[in-house]
Specification:
357 residues; 28% helix; five-stranded mixed beta sheet; globular
């Protein structure tokens, strides 16, 4: 098994920690001896052993003189667990290959420690794939004022998110909807616009196979604080943390009505200020699930970092609801192209994951 194939396997392993590792990165690791995998593992739980340690434990004595392939630079600090770099040295690993350097200033430095101990270190194998997998982690340790913003939209082949009567259940099929439940588990907040909240009456909770370490906060962008009190979001607010982002011109009585139901309201005039307010509350990643107006505004303002686009094999026609209203026109010879991170089939639907250029 060469370095690239081993890194592909490590990346696949790392997904096992999605929704469970908290603010830590997703990490997968393999111990390879004479081309054979003798141990593998991933970081499964916040506060639990890191992927390198799990792989070393699985390899046992076979780790001595072997190579370690890991998605992220091994940590060099004492946090909830001891430094992975020290565990690697103690196990007698002769060579370490990692995909991307650690973005956490408290944890980085593992590569230097390994080299000082005489371990051969190679880096940058499939780095772009590792960074894409850990986009939320790298954004968390960036200088950005707002949270990482991902848009999720299910669209028809003619880019409609609902039919002419506004019906959107269900554009995408069962497998796509199950994937969305898995996706929600890894974000700190799930958000919708006021129109979608009124039309769909969503729960915005995680109901899939992954039980998140911390359930995502539910967020509604509702400038006038008009969220219906009889809706499921308001009725369940005391059980599920819910935030409504309102404008400074929202009527005081409307805000008071929501707050009396257990909802937190925050003031943000404009999307940049609204997102900054969410980050100030500790929300560093947001999955925006609708609707088209909110998605279009975020794209037009350059505030969307990633798009999860579920394309269904249907046509909804010219009177259907556009997926991206409000996005300004652009010259085809000057437009920036988004980077395709992943393509996959989900039943009859196709998922495209795209990152901002």
């Amino acid at each position: 098994m060469d370095d690239r194939a081993a890194m592909e396997r490590a990346i696949a392993l790392a997904w096992g920690g999605w929704g469970r590792v908290g603010e830590n990165p997703l990490v997968g690791a393999l111990v390879v001896a004479r081309g054979e995998v003798v141990g593998e593992g991933f970081h499964a739980e916040f506060g639990g052993p890191h992927g390198e340690v799990v792989a070393l434990q699985a390899a046992g004595s076979r780790a001595r003189g072997a190579g370690l392939v890991v998605t992220l630079e091994p940590c060099a600090h004492h946090g909830k667990t001891p430094p992975c770099a020290e565990a690697i040295v103690a196990a007698g690993i002769g060579r370490v290959v990692f995909g991307a350097p650690d973005a956490d200033p408290k944890a980085r430095g593992g590569a230097d420690r390994l080299r000082q101990a005489g371990v051969v270190v190679a880096e940058g194998v499939l780095e772009s794939a590792v960074r894409a997998q850990n986009a939320l982690f790298f954004h968390r340790h960036s200088a950005c004022d707002g949270p990482f913003v991902a848009l999720k939209l299910a669209v028809s082949l003619d880019s409609r998110i609902a039919d002419g009567a506004g019906r959107s259940r269900w554009v995408a099929g069962e497998q796509a909807r199950a994937f969305v439940q898995w996706l929600r588990a890894g974000f700190e907040a799930v958000a919708v616009g006021a129109g979608t909240a009124r039309a769909d009456d969503p729960r915005l909770t995680v109901r899939g196979s992954v039980v998140p370490a911390r359930p995502p906060v539910r967020v509604v962008f509702d400038r006038r604080a008009e969220l219906p009190v009889e809706g499921r979001l308001v009725r369940s607010a005391r059980d599920c943390p819910t935030v409504v982002v309102v404008g400074s011109d929202a009527p005081a009585e409307s805000r008071a009505r929501l707050e009396a139901a257990g909802i937190a309201t925050v003031v943000g005039d404009g999307l940049p200020a609204s997102l900054a307010r969410l980050r100030s509350r500790g929300i560093r990643s947001v999955l925006v699930e609708g609707g088209g107006v909110l998605a279009g505004r975020l794209l037009a303002a350059g505030l969307a970092d990633r798009v999860y686009l579920f394309v269904a094999p249907i046509f909804l026609g010219a009177d259907g609801v556009s997926a991206f209203p409000g996005v300004p026109g652009a010259r085809i010879d000057a437009v920036a192209r988004w980077r395709t991170v992943e393509r996959r089939a989900l039943g009859e639907d196709t998922l495209l994951v795209l990152d901002r250029p």
